[in-house]
Amino acid sequence: MEIMDWKNNLTEEQTAFYDGIKITYSAIVGFLERLEKQAEKDGNLRMQKALCNLKENPPNTFYEALLTDYIYFMLSEHIEGLQVRSLSNFDRIFYKY
For residues 56 and 51, what is the distance between their CA atoms, to the nearest angstrom? Predict the structure, then answer.
């Protein structure tokens, strides 16, 4: 099966939307890198290792899952400027960890 060159089939609006997602994800990875460096500086090797993994992979442990949820929560609060979000249904999301 041949992979379609989807970039050539996007409208200008769609291209702008996906470019915005790339910018956002790049900023999040950059933020994780800064947190990782700070964790190393503070001697928190557990957090440093978790952040290093989360830059490119889904969470593998309960600690990483909680860290992901917390970082998402803090970034969402900062971007939206509203405190209307909960940290979700812990029992459903974190059971597998």
Answer: 9
> Do residues 59 and 67 lie in contact, with contact meaning Cβ atoms separated by under 8 Å?
yes
- Residue of 45, 41, 65, 43 lying closest to 54 (CA atoms): 65
Query: How confident is the model over 30-48, as pLDDT tens digits?
Result: 999 999 999 999 999 999 9
CA 56 from centroid of its chain's CA atoms: 9
Helices marked H in 1-97: 12-42, 45-54, 62-80, 90-94
CA torsion sign for 85, 79, 94, 92 is: positive
What confidence category does residue 90 fall into, taking pLDDT thresholds of 50, 70 and 90?
Answer: confident
Give the separation between CA 17 and CA 29, rounded to whole angstroms.
19
* pTM, full prediction: 0.76
